[in-house]
Amino acid sequence: MRMLRENIVGVAVCSAMVLAGFLASGNVMAFLNLPALLVVLGGTVGATLLSYPFPQVRAAVQVAKGAYRNPGSDPDEVIFALLDMSIRSKVDGLQSLERAGEETTVAFLRDAMQMLADNYSVEDIRDILSTEILHFRQRRQHNERVFRSMAVYAPAFGLAGSVIGLVGLLFGLGDTGDILRYIPIALVSTLYGILAAYFVFSPMAECIRDKTEREVLTHKLIIEGAVAIKHETNPHILEKKLSAFLTPAARRETRQTFAEVRQKYLRMVRSRAGEVPIMDVPAPAPAPAASTAAAPAPAPAPGRTRDKLTQ
User: Fold this and answer.
1) Is residue 212 part of a domain?
2) Residue 302 lies in a domain
């Protein structure tokens, strides 16, 4: 929710600056005009509903709300999860990824882990997830286009409000009351159209676009991680590969994350080794005194689990 708080603070500060500019004019009420507001908002919304089906407009509003309320998946957390699953697959096998995928809140990552657990081929994993990214981006572009269109319509209807005010002014040239009533409509409606376009609709469209690009980047990161896990890539190499999606500052944190994940699974392996029950073996008969000491028994072969973590 940090992004939301920062946005609220920024909008509040900028709105206060705009309001201060209105106050500096000496008469704030001069900028409040209901007919001009109705012309701009009514015309913009009406033109939008003529351009797009109502369900698409409603979906665009929902997406815009989500873009501000939910900043999306953190790439650092996704990389942490992929490194964790990479090492887990070497310890417990690919079937363990189904349970690991259910623990994550990222739907795209959950789908990728389910495909790995179901033993999909690399080509199928890449093709299915890439197709999902393609259609996801197209849906978001449709939502973004709704607000781009509204940003185009609003100044046009602001100009239409100005024309309405000027026409009323021409018909009321002989009446001072009519002149004072129509001049604000002619001037303020243009202001409303510009503010609606460049202070509301264009920023909302840009916010949707920015969040879409960040989510697509995260989805591509998940695809590369899933393919690397399928190929049983060395976790060190996977950490280097996924770090390419991050800024240099975030890459240092990823190295620390990988070390923590690896240590966690090494402790898990040692713990499992300590829990294996030792079977009772009968004591050997005592050797004769004259005989030489028996050769020491060969040490048990080290387990392969730890080696897997560095393969």
Assistant:
1) yes
2) no
Q: Which residues contact 259 (CB under 8 A, 6 or more apart)?
A: none
Residues 47-78 pLDDT 10s: 999 999 999 999 999 999 988 888 777 777 88
* 39 assigned to some structural domain: yes
pLDDT at position 263: 67
Tokens of 22: 């209105």
Contact between 106 and 83 under an 8 Å Cβ cutoff? The reply is: no
Q: Structure tokens of 96?
A: 């363990």
Q: How far apart are CA 9 and CA 203, in angstroms?
A: 15
CA 84/CA 187 separation, integer angstroms: 61
Residue predicted with more confidence, 280 or 3:
3
Confidence of residue 250 (pLDDT cuts 50, 70, 90): low
- CA–CA gap between residue 253 and residue 77 (Å, rounded): 11
User: Would residue 300 count as lying in a domain?
Assistant: no
Q: Provide the domain count of the chain.
A: 1
Tokens 């996704």 sit at which residue?
A: 78
Place of tokens 């699953």: 85
Give the whole-angstrom CA distance, residue 208 versus residue 1: 16
- As given in the structure block, the two tokens for residue 112 are 């990728």
Identify the three-state secondary structure at position 176.
Answer: helix
Which residue segment(s) compose the domain that 99 sits in? Answer: 31-267
Distance in angstroms (rounded) separating the CA atoms of residues 15 and 7 = 12
The pLDDT of residue 189 is above 50: yes
Strand, coil or helix: what is 272? helix
Closest CA to 114 of 135, 133, 130, 128: 128
What whole-number distance in Å separates Cα of residue 158 and Cα of residue 196?
9
Asked if 86 and 240 count as a contact pair (C-beta separation under 8 A), the reply is no
What gap in Å lies between CA 80 and CA 19, rounded to an integer? 45
Query: Can you spell out the DSSP letters for 215-240?
Result: HHHHHHHHHHHHHHHHTT--HHHHHH
CB 97 within 8 A of CB 117: yes
